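thread: overnight batch results

M.L. [08:02]
morning all. the overnight job finished for the chain we discussed friday. pasting input first so we're all looking at the same thing
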Amino acid sequence: MNITVDLTIVPIGVGVSLSSYVAACEKVLSDAGLKTALHSFGTNIEGEWEAVFAAIKRCHEVVHQMGAPRISTTIKLGRARTAFSRWKTKLKA
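M.L. [08:03]
and the structure it wrote out:
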């Protein structure tokens, strides 16, 4: 089942610079073979349900391993039964 997710993971208690955490999560998503597009407040992800949520779980594990005592996560998820669910198709429309 192909889904599109808008993901924002915010480590809490680590200071104001979050770039190293963003880079670590982007590596997790890339290593998982997922299609991603970073934007100013998160990352768009496209892929199979199981793969996307396994990668999100892995992002949490990595961020905790990097020293974040808490994490706040926002997930927006979309799915359609047609090709229209792909973000390139949506943007063209």
